[in-house]
């Protein structure tokens, strides 16, 4: 049956104005949104380009050869990204994750990593600096990223069977090269390496046990992600979602599991350990077990828009402030003002009328703001 693909409406062209609040909001590290959620985790998309065409994120039919990527001049420079990130740290961010598209496609990324590694959290400690990648360029880049100050990587890998993997990335990319990238990351000390598998019922769910057998006992943390209705182009259907409970049952049928405590507040994955001590697996269940309650994540698009939720329809244009002569205090104040007004909790609303923005605006594409 042909994949359902919905034409793209270019969200990149719209933005909400990032207002400077009348009353300045100083960065105290204690910022909270309307639900009392602090700002702890900043995901920075450094490119809207990717060399894969995973159908659940960047379907080839939409992101085809005529697709217009953002002009380089519109992207935040490394210096601008670092300046904006500094204000987020002042508001309480402790963790920075670099994403894309495929972040390793951004030239000289290690320069940005080294700049971000110089920053400090409100406690005076370096931020936790991580990166999510499809692993295709990791074997070449791992050592330089580590030397620049990157601490950990998460690699997206949707199967071990080469034919399945090539079908999932839809650019015929061999799985062996991603496995080489994972090995290089471990060798470079970018661990513990995490591996994320998006499970799509009827497409790669038969790979669940293969993946578990391969990574258990390796020190690599394997996480299973429920297929999500991100963006507006992947033709998402609920009957292609395999709930985490079902994935867990499939693994437990061969390897008994025990629940583990969250490693940090706001963590997206539910952690489970192999009862025989052979490591842990995680389940990211945005569809069947929403985790908006303690979501402390903000997302910065590659050209400087602040999104408050992965499923948001619009972002706030911080670049206009950065390039418009705003001071650091003003920038921090605007970020504070935006976060204080945040009420996003899409996953709790999914499937209800309330989930619809009511403005007809469609959700932003994950390839644009990062997962
Ligand atoms: S749906 Fe939005 S608010 Fe909820 S956990 Fe995901 S990013 Fe956070």
UniProtKB/TrEMBL annotation:
Binding positions for S-adenosyl-L-methionine per the UniProt entry: 56, 101, 156, 228
Gene3D superfamilies linked: Aldolase class I (3.20.20.70)
Broadest EC class assigned to this enzyme: lyase
Annotated GTP binding sites: 43, 97, 132, 194, 297-299
Binding positions for [4Fe-4S] cluster 2 per the UniProt entry: 292, 295, 309
EC nos: 4.1.99.22
InterPro entries, per the entry: Aldolase_TIM, Elp3/MiaA/NifB-like_rSAM, MoaA, MoaA-like, MoaA_NifB_PqqE_Fe-S-bd_CS, MoaA_twitch, MoCo_biosynth_MoaA/MoaC, rSAM
Cofactor, how bound (note): Binds 2 [4Fe-4S] clusters. Binds 1 [4Fe-4S] cluster coordinated with 3 cysteines and an exchangeable S-adenosyl-L-methionine and 1 [4Fe-4S] cluster coordinated with 3 cysteines and the GTP-derived substrate.
Record CDD domains: Radical_SAM, Twitch_MoaA
UniProt GO BP: Mo-molybdopterin cofactor biosynthetic process
Chain sites annotated for binding [4Fe-4S] cluster 1: 50, 54, 57
Family: Belongs to the radical SAM superfamily. MoaA family.
Subunit structure, as described in the record: Monomer and homodimer.
HAMAP family named in the record: MoaA_B
NCBIfam families associated with the record: moaA
Function: Catalyzes the cyclization of GTP to (8S)-3',8-cyclo-7,8-dihydroguanosine 5'-triphosphate.
Name recorded for this polypeptide: GTP 3',8-cyclase
């Amino acid at each position: 049956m042909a994949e359902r693909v919905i034409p793209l409406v270019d969200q990149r062209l719209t933005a909400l104005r990032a207002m400077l609040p009348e009353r300045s909001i100083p960065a105290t590290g204690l910022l909270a949104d309307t639900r009392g959620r602090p700002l702890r985790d900043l995901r920075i998309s450094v490119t809207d380009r990717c060399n894969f065409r995973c159908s659940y994120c960047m379907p080839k039919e939409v992101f085809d050869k005529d697709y217009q990527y953002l002009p380089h001049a519109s992207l935040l420079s490394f210096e601008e990204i670092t300046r904006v990130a500094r204000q987020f740290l002042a508001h309480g961010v402790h963790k920075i994750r670099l994403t894309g598209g495929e972040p390793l496609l951004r030239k000289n990324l290690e320069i940005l990593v080294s700049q971000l590694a110089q920053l400090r959290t409100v406690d005076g400690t370096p931020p936790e600096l991580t990166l999510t990648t499809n692993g295709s360029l990791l074997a070449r880049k791992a050592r330089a990223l580590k030397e620049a100050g990157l601490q950990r990587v998460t690699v997206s890998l949707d199967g071990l069977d080469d034919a399945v993997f090539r079908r999932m990335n839809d650019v015929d990319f061999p799985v062996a090269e991603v496995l080489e990238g994972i090995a290089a990351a471990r060798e470079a000390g970018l661990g513990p390496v995490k591996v994320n598998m998006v499970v799509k019922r009827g497409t790669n769910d038969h790979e669940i046990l293969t993946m578990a057998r391969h990574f258990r006992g390796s020190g690599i943390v394997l996480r299973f992600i429920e297929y999500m209705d991100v963006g507006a182009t992947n033709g998402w259907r609920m009957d292609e979602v395999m709930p985490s409970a079902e994935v867990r049952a499939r693994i437990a049928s061969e390897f008994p599991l025990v629940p583990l405590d969250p490693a940090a507040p706001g963590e997206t994955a539910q952690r489970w350990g192999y009862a025989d001590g052979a490591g842990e697996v995680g389940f990211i269940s945005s569809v069947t077990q929403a985790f908006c309650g303690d979501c402390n994540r903000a997302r910065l698009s590659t050209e400087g828009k602040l999104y408050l939720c992965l499923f948001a329809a619009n972002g706030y244009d911080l670049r206009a402030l950065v390039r418009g002569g705003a001071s650091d205090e003003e920038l921090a104040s605007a970020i504070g003002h935006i976060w204080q007004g945040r009420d996003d909790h899409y996953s709790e609303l999914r499937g209800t009328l309330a989930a619809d923005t009511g403005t007809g605006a469609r959700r932003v594409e994950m390839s644009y703001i990062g997962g």
